[in-house]
Amino acid sequence: MNKYKSTELTNIEPKFLGSKISVCILTYNHAHLIESTLKSILNQTINGYDIYISDDCSTDNTFDIIKELICNNDRIKLLKTPHNMGMAGNANFAIKNINKPYIALLHHDDICRTDLLEKWALALEKNEGAAFVFNPYGVYGSKTIFRWNIGEECMEGRWLLEKLLFPKWGCCVRGTAMIRRDAWLSVGGMREEFGMLADIDLWMRLSMKWQVAYVDEPVIAIRQERPDNYPVAYKENFWTWRRRQLLYEIHIANRLTYWDIDSFGGRLKWWKFRILLSFETFKWLSYAVIRKKPEMILTSKDSITKYDLMPLVILRWLLISIYRSKYNQ
pTM score > 0.90 for this model? Predict the structure, then answer.
């Protein structure tokens, strides 16, 4: 399945890595943070990389600030989407302009350690079977680090899929990573129908086909600041049934692709997953009842998938009917 070979790290000259890298920064309505993010990307330990900044039709002055910041800097190319496309659409739009083999996908609020690009590129150079590389994440201004017990600098993608991506509703890989361009093209980039969570789907599809590299250092610090003019759905820790449903659909699509549903073992795994899927929605419905959150009950139809088990379908219908009657909706 893997199309790349392994390389000894001692054969790699870090100073030449920059010529293989294009940094892709996705921006939208982050005028207050973009300058510090860009400075951290420009201040790297290697040279020769170029930078593409793709603005998704910001409604504040993000685009104008970027134009001023990059004035007379030929390394940086500023792009603008034809209309607001969301994170996934913006990523697909921007990467169409990139020809270098390594794509460092970054967001407008990340603070990058000075050796981020070097660490990422070295990992891909050493592990030629890896489609992408990711890392633990620090929280800016805090000692908090989101780290996972991986312990390997390169793992089989199927191991990552089966041990971390499939068993958890969260995702150990954030929306930032360095990706091989040919692997990105092979899977068709991000599937825009999965909206704000399309990156989770991307990591799953890449993991099915290739190995995955890991840098066990917090080389990125995330900032969880969102301005008032930022889409609510993209704000950290924002919970909606629609967000859950997107996550469900990502898991459904990738499990159906990965498992042989025609085999006994595949059918067993699929039915186990359907039980877990229905239980997850049941758990949130129970939470809404106990915490007395009628709006959460009344909007729970947004969580429907065609694979919900019948007991859940009946329960959700009953709760919605009861709460509609109670609150005259």
Answer: yes
Is residue 183 within 8 Å of 110, Cβ to Cβ? no
Residue 53 and residue 91 in contact, taking contact as beta carbons nearer than 8 Å: no
Q: Write out the H or E segment, with its range, that includes residue 238.
A: none
CA pair distance 238, 235, nearest whole angstrom: 6
Cα–Cα distance for residue pair 61/110, rounded to 1 Å: 19
Q: Distance between CA 76 and CA 49 in Å, rounded?
A: 10
Neighbouring CB atoms inside 10 A of 3's CB total 13
- Residues facing residue 155 across a β-bridge: 212
* Helix orientation angle between 241-258 and 198-209, rounded to the nearest 10 degrees: 10
Nearest to 147 by CA among 164, 132, 159: 164
Cα–Cα distance, 298 to 130 (Å, whole number): 45
pLDDT digits (tens, 9 = 90+) for 11-46: 566 667 899 999 999 999 988 889 999 999 999 999
- Could you give the CA distance from residue 106 to residue 220 in angstroms, rounded to a whole number? 10
Question: d(Cα 78, Cα 89) in Å, to the nearest integer?
Answer: 16
What CA–CA distances, in Å, run from 119 to 18, 24, 140, 177, 318?
A: 11, 17, 19, 11, 54
Tell me the pLDDT tens digit for each residue of 60-108. 999 999 999 988 888 899 999 999 999 999 999 999 999 999 999 999 8
220-222, strands of its sheet edge to edge = 111-112, 220-222, 137-139, 145-146
pLDDT in tens, 127-144: 999 999 999 999 888 888
